[in-house]
Each structure stands twice: as structure tokens, then as C-alpha cells.
UniProtKB/TrEMBL annotation:
Protein name: YecA family protein
Superkingdom as given in the UniProt entry: Bacteria
InterPro entries: YgfB-like (IPR011978), YgfB-like_sf (IPR036255)
Pfam families (alphabetical): UPF0149
Amino acid sequence: MSHKPLSEQDYQRLSATLARFAGHGCMNLERLDGFFAALLAGPEAVRPAECLPLILGDAFDDESAFPSEKALEQFVALLRGHWQDIAEALKQGEFQPWLDADAAGQTTGNDWAEGFAAGMELLNDDWGLLFDSPDNAPLLEPIMILGFERHPDPEMRPFVDAIDAETRAELLASLSPSVHGIHDFFAAIRRQLEQEEQELDREEPRRPH
């Protein structure tokens, strides 16, 4: 069954629902996009429904958050639609991060990169494969720089001074190729593991009857 992409109206509805729970520590759409990108490009796909507590924050345990069971189902369907939109874009080589301008009209990419970093934490050990790969670890640089720019501990921030506009533009432009590179890196590992498993199955000696 082919996937029907979410419409602009769907995205407005998804964004509005997420914004309604902002006070509960819920992700906004930009952060959600980074989070899903990490889950889909990373070591193994984690389903959106499994991540509802992380996405909704305290609203997940609030029974009055959604007026009805149907409203919650519609919200989950929108999440799943966005998830599939990203999966499709990655497959086609056309992924672009969802970046919104802040109140000052600036596109900083921080929410997106922080969402990506939150997604990485779910399978922390497996992401170590990428950090340990000299050729591919640099793919994480733009994401880590933007993801830790606002870290509460100044020691964790990549730059002492603010990132200038030109550097930020370069970092934002690097996000899409980075995500594709990360996706390819883990896809190659999965293929190799599957191949090794198949070879082991073939080599298993047949037991005599």
C-alpha cells in the first residue's frame, strides 16, 4: 500500500496539537522532526507509538489532554503520517529537516538538533558504532553543535561565543546530507548483519533423520 503524504492542513493540525501541550514539556513539530529523523536514520527503527511519553511529556499521563479516544487516535495517526513522510523522504534521498523560525524570526535549528539528540539516547550503545567510525563520525558534527548550543552547562556547549549567521547557515545546510549519510551508514550495517545471518543458516549442518 503506497503512503499518502500528510497535507499542509494535517501538518497545521499536528503542529497545533503539539503546541497545545507545550507547557507539559511536549515536543514542538521541529523537535519531533529531529527526533523521528534520528529514530529512522539510526540503528533500528523504533515505532512512534512507543515514544508517546517522550513526545507528549506530562500530557501523556493527563487523561484530560485529549477530549476523546478518537481525538487521541487522530493525533497518533498524524504522528504516524509524519513518521512515514520522513521514512519515504529518506528512501528517496530527499529528506529535508523541518525548521521553524523562532519568535525573533530566526531559524536556529536548535529544537531540531535537540530532538535528534533525544532520539539517539534511546539506542545510545548502537549509536556508538557511528561515533567510533573515523570516516562517518563527522556526519554528527552539525547536529551535535546545534544540539548542544543551548546546553545548560556552558562546558557542554561547542562554542564559547554565539554562532555567527554564516556558520549557522552552513550547519543548517549540512543537516540533510548528514541525516542521509547516517541513514546509509546504519543501513549498510543492517544489510551486512542480515547477510552474515543468512550465511550462518546455510552453513548449519543438516541433522540426519
